[in-house]
Write a structure and sequence with these properties.
The complex is a heterotrimer of chains A (about 375), B (about 375) and C (about 700). Chain A has about 375 residues and is mainly α. Chain A is about 70% helix and about 0% strand. Chain C is about 30% helix and about 20% strand. Classes of the chains: A mainly alpha (about 375), B alpha/beta (about 375), C alpha/beta (about 700). At the A-B interface, helix 2 of A face strand 14, strand 15 and strand 16 of B. The complex binds iron/sulfur cluster (6 copies).
């Protein structure tokens, strides 16, 4: 490596995001030693901690290893200097979303509380625009019928279009990410394997990397609930969209998809519950949870909650039903549209990183 | 000068050490010179088995109550050893203790005072009394009870030294579960026993000769979860152990895992010597965990070799924990710093000396004690 | 010179502790009576018991005994019990070195007991009354050289203990190096308070801008010629030298770029930071010149802390600055670890382990290539200023201007440090009454220097008090005998002056030795060195040992009972032999043991005496020589080795096998080895065969 130019801004940003006194690291390597996911060659997170201490952004962004970390917190609990490497790694991941985010401002938007009003304003404005476009600005009388107020067809198509657009932008980031990984962690002598998709998929579905971490089985359960709950909800939503196009909407409450949706909501609630509880109780392991952590948890929570309420409102003919639905749509925006720019972006980045790691034979 | 010692022999921890760093020379050499001065200087008296009960009075006029645990053998003892020969009770096996040591015992051939004593926890007293029959010198008093002694002194030097941090509290090193994970103090005594009895080092679990021994530095020290300070002596100690093994055991490989090698001044020499040795490896990296492995070398260390950037899971036969030092206290209500060590400044007339003030090596302890003796002479 | 006074010798035999079972005490008494006319004997089954001692006291009183041999246990035990007012007592170690190590009831064991007893009694017969060396005048003032932190501490502590102190400082102010530094963030030492205290202390006379012209004399009577505006002579009892250190010569660090104006040393930076703002990027190179075989092999101990401290200065003076620290190990031992963390709390201080590969001045900035770093295998850092943490070199002690024949300073040992046995006896130097304190004797930080000054002062005071009582200081503290020279026979060969490890002897212009007994540590090396055999102690002389040698009955060569004379150093080898006894390790009964003050005190004449007396071999057992295991008298063991070579020649001229004389070095814990040494040697000797001089 050539000239090292320490980047104190980046270093401080990592410190701020992670709430870690990362300069206290004495480079003892204990974190890499206790990490059950660290590979033998150039293990993490020790080296990342050294680089963080010098603010070596170019080594940290596009680093494949930070995605192999599943943030079990073992390294943090055993760190003799209480530097919380797990949180620092997580902060680097966060910086990664920002780095690859296009348009850049979207990344900024969701990473600091100051921008929150704007982040909320955007979906509100867009939805209002759609509503005014459809001209259904008046809350209908009678039993709750969402389609009377919300132009489902228009909504679905705009939302899908925007989502696709955002994801397309994100995919450019992913491509750059892939290149950076390749540059920073070039494949060894053995070269690259063909995409080991099946293996990575297996890892993701089985959550096997979670069981590696010593700290908590609960976390695995929580993430699994969220993961499968969320997946199920997506399926249900896709079905619902298809349903609105092809036949009658809304679905009756007895529709299996409707039931699945409710089961998924329950899974998400329990997953979220565990996560929130752990974050509050186990500060030593999780460190100071950052804004982006809470934003994500809140968004998913509100999304699911508003979904449930929307359903109940229809059932109970509440007068606030349409407001709830509006709120629900904003929440959808937060989770789905902003996905590549928030912590949810890990769905893309981690999957990509795992693919890369496994293809170069990194554990 | 009245010397109050809690144990039955003078010399403290180092009297059971195998050698000192950096010269790798036996502590008994310097101790013997000091013992001989105590022997022939009528101005010095001492009490063994004695602990301070209370201190009253003030500078220039202290009254110190001490309770003296009986050795069960009095000063008549000639150290003939007959009592130990006939004694049927054995002291429990402990690392560094002579196998089958009797209830009547003496520390070693250079112990001071050169008198036997009886382990009160093991001795069956009158129910046995075998030693009473053989002792020709009326030295054995099996029913002796603790004595209270009151001393009048002008100044008090507190030199209570150190004790190890409790190794069991570092659960990831499995000290309690694994017999072959030992503290550096235990290891030191094991080596001393080998020198004393001319035996070979064996590992506690199965009595086999270890082939690979790992030294885990900063065990408890420099760790916010345990002791935040550095214990200052353990790097030199482990190097000393490794060099001792290197010169005496052609089959043993030693590897030291450290964060920083902290050797001040000429102790650096230890590092220079160790670096050239084939059977000593020095690896930068703090040991994360010790887990149970398979087969004979069953202690698997998880550690990153930082310099090589390589995470190892490596099996050893034996692990020595370079434990941190903590202060040993005396019942005197002295002022302590945030780590529990005695502050240099106490109420007038009480002078803490050496390693109860901060972790330090023998040489520093001797020099500080010398300085404190001068302070005690001042009015 | 045999004593002419009337004396009465006696022998007390203890038959306790296996001795009685091992030998026949009556036979021993008979043998002794035969050898020593008019000797009184007593035996008791437990001589050290109250009853035994009572009987012994009565016996000595009644018989008017003034020299008593106690044939019992080792002199290392029951010392107080067998000390008797007005009687010279010597011990015959029939327990640890006979009953516990030899076959009981055997003829050879009995012969050994008889010989050993006769030896000690023969010695008692020769020794003179001891008159301790008591100079007419003993000065109690202490000279402290150097007004740095250690010197100031020594002066204050000594004065507080009631001793007058002369504090001599070369420069015009006290405080030394520590007085010139900007801040001491991690030491709670208020140096300026200490220096003003010492300036106004009635018990301390401060001599600023003063140099030492010469120091002559001996402990208790040192005459110190000083010069400032005019000259004066101070009379002091002892000296503490605390002349401090200097930075390692940075000109030798050209590999680290010292020639560049953008590269400074710690010291230079400490000064410049007080007057100018540091630049934006400063890089510290730790261990500059230390821990390096080509420069200073040791760790200078202070520089890690000092560099961390300076990093804080930079940040304080230039909040926009970045500091890079390249270290090998961060050595903030003990509570200093807290300071390390404190410095790390500032995230503009960047640290990495690494090895400096090159430092190059690019004209406007400095490029530093670092290898083996944790950031990458090789990295390049760019800075505006590089600070080299140069090491600590002890100042020369020759400024003391000691008017000693063996040189003006303290003899230096490994790494040019002057302390001789730094682990157990950290203040001892090789000049009695002169104690080194602070960084002049080893690298240390301010807190330790302060403690060190106090400790050295204690030793200085102790020395004065010992001289007043006519006693030796370490390691034979309390010994009241001292070497006396029968000058009429001196040939001015200068052996004694050269070989005395402590520089006791000066010389006249003609080269005649001038003893200074208060400098003497009573090692007896001069006794061993003198070819004219004119140096002796009251209880340790050519005659006394010769008498011991001759007191042994040597059987003729056909009895197959070889006799081996063993000279054993009292410091380590003797206790090791005792420990062999405690462990009941058997060795040959053919040995006859003579304890000596130091192996270096063995005179060649004893060897030839022994050979002509018919001993088959001579074994000398002493302390391990060398830097890592110093003989308590510094080079007694080495001298024995050197002299051994000459001895081999003597043997050859006598047509004797050189293997008959052997020297072995042991540690005090080598009781097993000492058993082997003796047994192996006796075995080897049996192969060589008897000494042909036996019947001559
Ligand atoms: S983060 Fe903690 S455990 Fe990891 S190297 Fe730094 S100090 Fe050690
Ligand atoms: S949080 Fe867990 S997985 Fe991540 S680096 Fe730390 S120990 Fe490894
Ligand atoms: S107590 Fe008695 S039997 Fe035991 S060693 Fe002492 S004197 Fe001998
Ligand atoms: S001396 Fe070494 S092993 Fe001991 S605490 Fe300090 S750095 Fe750790
Ligand atoms: S104190 Fe630090 S910088 Fe100085 S020589 Fe020792 S290790 Fe190197
Ligand atoms: S006895 Fe030793 S110290 Fe004394 S004068 Fe002789 S050689 Fe020197």
């Amino acid at each position: 490596m050539g000239i090292i130019k320490p980047d104190i801004k980046f270093k401080r940003e990592l410190g701020r995001l992670s709430g870690s006194q990362l300069n206290q690291c004495m480079q003892c390597g204990n974190c890499s030693a206790v990490c059950s996911l660290a590979p033998a060659e150039r293990p993490f997170p020790g080296k990342e901690m050294v680089w963080s201490g010098w603010g070596l952004k170019e080594k940290l962004i596009g680093n494949v290893d930070i995605w192999l970390c599943h943030q079990c917190g073992d390294c943090s609990s055993y760190c003799p200097r209480d530097v919380k490497p797990a949180d620092v790694i997580s902060a680097i991941r966060h910086q990664t979303y920002l780095h690859y985010a296009r348009p850049r401002f979207l990344g900024k938007l969701v990473s600091s509380p100051a921008w929150l009003p704007v982040a909320i304003a955007i979906p509100v404005v867009v939805i209002m625009a759609i509503l005014s476009l459809a001209g259904t600005f008046k809350i209908p009388e009678g039993p709750v019928d969402y389609s009377a107020f919300f132009p489902h067809g228009l909504l679905n198509s705009t939302f899908s279009a925007i989502t696709l657009f955002f994801y397309l932008l994100a995919s450019f980031g992913i491509v750059r990410f892939w290149k950076d990984m390749k540059r920073l962690t070039p494949p060894g002598e053995a070269g690259m394997k063909k995409f080991p998709i099946a293996r990575v998929l297996g890892e993701i579905l089985s959550h096997s990397n979670f069981s590696g971490c010593g700290s908590q089985q609960l976390r695995k359960i929580a993430h699994m609930s969220l993961f499968f709950g969320f997946g199920l909800l997506i399926l249900v939503t896709l079905y619902a969209i298809w349903a609105t196009i092809t036949h009658n909407y809304p679905l009756p409450f007895t529709n299996p998809f409707k039931i699945a949706g409710n089961v998924a909501s329950l899974m998400i609630y329990s997953g979220l519950g565990i996560m929130v509880f752990q974050r509050l109780m186990n500060r030593s392991v999780f460190g100071k949870s950052s804004y982006s952590d809470w934003l994500l948890l809140a968004a998913i929570g509100l999304l699911t909650l508003s979904g449930t309420l929307v359903e109940l409102a229809r059932f109970g003919n509440w007068s606030v039903a349409y407001h709830l639905y509006f709120f629900h749509l904003v929440a959808v925006w937060f989770v789905i549209m902003y996905l590549p720019f928030t912590k949810m972006g890990h769905i893309f980045y981690r999957t990509t990183a795992l693919l890369y790691a496994r293809s170069i034979g990194r554990k | 000068m009245v010397l109050i010692e809690r144990l039955n022999y003078l010399g403290g921890n180092v009297s059971r050490f195998n050698n000192y760093f950096p010269k790798l020379c036996p502590p008994a050499c310097g101790l013997e010179i000091n013992y001989s001065r105590i022997r022939s200087n009528p101005r010095i008296s001492y009490h063994t088995g004695a602990s301070v009960e209370s201190i009253c009075g003030s500078d220039g006029d202290f009254r110190v109550k001490i309770s003296v645990e009986p050795r069960l053998i009095n000063n008549n003892c000639t150290s003939c050893g007959l009592c130990a020969e006939v004694c049927p009770e054995e002291r429990p096996q402990k690392l560094g203790r002579k196998a089958g040591e009797k209830a009547a015992y003496i520390n070693n051939g250079l112990a001071f005072p050169m008198k036997y004593c009886i382990d009160p926890l093991v001795c069956k007293r009158e129910a046995c009394g075998k030693c009473l029959e053989v002792c020709d010198y009326d030295a054995i008093q099996l029913n002796a009870s603790p004595a209270e002694v009151e001393l009048q002194v002008g100044k008090i030097i507190v030199a209570t030294g150190w004790i190890l941090y409790d190794a069991a509290r570092i659960e990831n090193y499995r000290y309690q579960e694994e017999p072959d994970v030992v503290t550096n103090l235990e290891f030191e005594r094991m080596l001393a026993a080998c020198t004393r009895e001319k035996t070979k080092l064996t590992r506690p679990s199965d009595g086999k000769t270890p082939r690979r021994i790992a030294f885990v530095q900063c065990a408890g020290s420099r760790d916010v979860n345990h002791l935040p300070y550095c214990s200052a002596v353990c790097c030199s100690t482990s190097l000393k152990h490794a060099l001792t093994l290197e010169s005496e055991y052609p089959d043993i490989h030693a590897e030291i895992f450290y964060i920083d090698m902290r050797l001040s001044g000429r102790n650096e020499k230890l590092l220079k010597q160790a670096e050239g040795k084939e059977r000593i490896a020095l690896t930068k990296g703090k040991v994360g965990r010790i887990v149970q492995g398979e087969g004979e070398a069953n202690l698997v260390l998880e550690v990153e070799d930082i310099s090589k950037g390589f995470r190892r899971e490596d099996a050893f036969d034996m692990v020595v924990l370079a434990m941190g030092l903590t202060p040993n206290h005396v019942a005197a209500g002295l002022k302590v710093n945030k780590y529990g060590f005695y502050l240099p400044e106490q109420r007038a007339g009480i002078i803490p000396a050496a390693s109860c003030k901060r972790p330090m090596d023998v040489s520093s302890a001797v020099k500080d004690a010398t300085a404190c003796a001068l302070k005690a002479m001042q009015r | 010179m045999m004593s002419a006074e009337k004396k009465h010798m006696a022998l007390a035999i203890c038959t306790g502790c296996d001795i009685g079972n091992c030998i026949d005490a009556d036979k021993l008494t008979d043998a002794v009576r035969e050898a020593f006319d008019g000797i009184s004997c007593i035996s008791h089954k437990s001589l050290c018991s109250e009853a035994g001692l009572e009987e012994l006291r009565k016996f000595t009183r009644e018989k008017g005994v003034d020299r008593l041999g106690v044939a019992a246990c080792s002199p290392r035990v029951k010392t107080a019990e067998f000390s008797m007012d007005g009687i010279y007592v010597d011990r015959i170690n029939l327990r640890e070195q006979l009953a516990w190590v030899m076959e009981p009831g055997e003829e050879d064991t009995q012969m050994c007991a008889e010989d050993q007893t006769r030896m000690v009694l023969a010695k008692l017969d020769t020794i003179k009354e001891n008159t301790p060396y008591l100079p007419e005048q003993v000065y109690s003032d202490v000279l402290v050289v150097g007004g740095g932190i250690a010197g100031v501490s020594a002066a204050l502590e000594g004065a507080a203990a009631g001793y007058r102190v002369h504090l001599v400082e070369k420069s015009d102010r006290l405080g030394g190096y520590a007085g010139r530094i900007y801040k001491t963030p991690y030491n709670e030492i208020d140096l300026s308070a200490r220096t003003s205290e010492v300036m106004s202390h009635p018990g301390v006379e401060v001599h600023l801008e003063t140099s030492i012209e010469s120091i002559s004399g001996e402990p208790g009577n040192f005459f110190v010629a000083i010069r400032n505006s005019d000259s004066a002579t101070l009379k002091v009892g002892s000296v503490v030298t605390a002349t401090g250190w200097k930075p390692y010569d940075p000109d030798k660090l050209s590999a680290l770029g010292y020639a560049s104006p953008r590269v400074k040393t710690l010291e230079e930076f400490e000064q410049s930071v007080q007057v100018e703002q540091p630049p934006d990027r400063v890089l510290f190179v730790l261990c500059a010149g230390s821990r390096d075989e080509n420069h200073l092999s040791y760790c200078s101990s202070y520089c890690c802390g000092a560099a961390l401290k300076q990093a804080l200065y930079i940040r304080e003076k230039n909040p926009g600055a970045e500091v890079y620290i390249v270290y090998r190990d961060i050595r903030t031992a003990g509570f200093q670890e807290e300071f390390y963390k404190l410095v790390q709390a500032d995230d503009a201080i960047f640290m990495t382990k690494g090895v400096i590969k090159s430092v190059s001045d690019l004209g406007n900035e400095v490029e530093v290539v670092v290898g083996e770093s944790l950031l990458d295998e090789q990295i390049t850092l760019v800075a505006d200023l590089v600070v080299l943490a140069t090491g600590m070199v002890p100042n020369t002690t020759s400024d003391l201007k000691l008017q000693y024949r063996l040189g003006e300073g303290l003899p230096e040992l490994e790494y040019e440090f002057s302390d001789s046995h730094f682990i157990c006896f950290p203040y001892e130097t090789r000049r009695t009454g002169v104690y080194a304190a602070g960084t002049v004797r080893a690298p240390m930080d301010m807190e330790m220097s302060q403690e060190d000054g106090a400790g050295a002062m204690m030793k200085a005071i102790q020395c004065i008090e010992c001289v007043k009582r006519g006693e030796a200081v370490h390691p034979r503290a309390g010994d009241m005998s001292y070497p006396e020279l029968y000058m009429e026979r001196c040939t001015d060969c200068k052996r004694c002056t050269e070989e005395c490890p402590f520089g006791s002897y000066d010389e006249t212009d003609k080269g005649t030795p001038l003893p200074n007994p208060a400098r003497c540590r009573r090692c007896g090396i001069c006794v061993g060195s003198c070819p004219e055999r004119i140096i002796s102690f009251s209880d340790f002389s050519i005659n006394s040992v010769s008498a011991m040698i001759k007191a042994v009955h040597v059987p003729d060569e056909f009895k197959e009972k070889p006799r081996v004379l063993v000279f054993v150093c009292e410091n380590d080898a003797y206790p090791a032999l005792d420990a062999a006894g405690v462990h009941r390790l058997r060795y040959s009964p053919f040995v006859r043991i003579i304890p000596v003050r130091c192996l270096g005190s063995v005179n060649k004449v004893w060897i030839s005496d022994a050979l002509s007396h018919g001993y088959d071999g001579i074994l000398q057992i002493g302390c391990k020589p060398g830097d890592d295991y110093q003989c308590h008298f510094i080079h007694g063991s080495e001298l024995t080795e050197q002299r051994g070579e000459n001895l081999q020649e003597t043997l050859e001229t006598m047509m004797l096998e050189p293997e008959r004389i052997q020297t072995r070095f042991v540690e005090i814990t080598d009781h097993h080895e000492i058993q082997e040494i003796i047994n192996d040697y006796v075995e080897e000797l049996e192969l060589i065969g008897p000494n042909p001089f036996k019947d001559m």
